[in-house]
Fold this sequence. Notes:
The protein is an all-alpha fold and 170 residues long. Helix content is 79%, strand content 0%. It has 9 helices and no strands. The longest helix is centred in the N-terminal third of the chain and has 19 residues, at 19-37. The chain is elongated.
Amino acid sequence: KNHEILDTAASAFETLKQYPEARKLREAALTIRGEVSGDQSADYAVGLMKLGDLSRQEGHIDEATGYYRKAAALGDRPEVAGALLHLGIIKYGKKDDSGALDFFQRAQNAAPSMSMAGPAMTWQARVRQRQQDGAAAAESLYRTALAAEDLSSPDRALTMEIFAGFLREH
């Protein structure tokens, strides 16, 4: 009844790109999380996120999205901020700006730290950037995201790169 042991082993298999073995362990860990903490708990949401992330690593985006939706359905809590961000990116790709902004705002609000809220703000800026009168809002969001992100984080580097492209256009 210890999901942590299974999660540790699953992480090792993921590192080796042995995804079928990792999946079996992640699914067993999720079952244990449900039995111990309940299928509405934050711990269960973490298990769903781990399965979603594994599915995404495997390139199974639709499957990952299903796990992320289940996690997000458990409420806007820090454990599901990544799921909300992923769901927003899907809406963004489908040019559903309103739906994307909703998920990005929820991710920002649920983020456990300001540095994790940065990517949500960067994506909000991208949505605003493609709206007709959104340049000022986009610039403000990019600057806020940069201020929130850790100086040496990959998220900050990506935000800087996207923001630089925005500044070249405007």
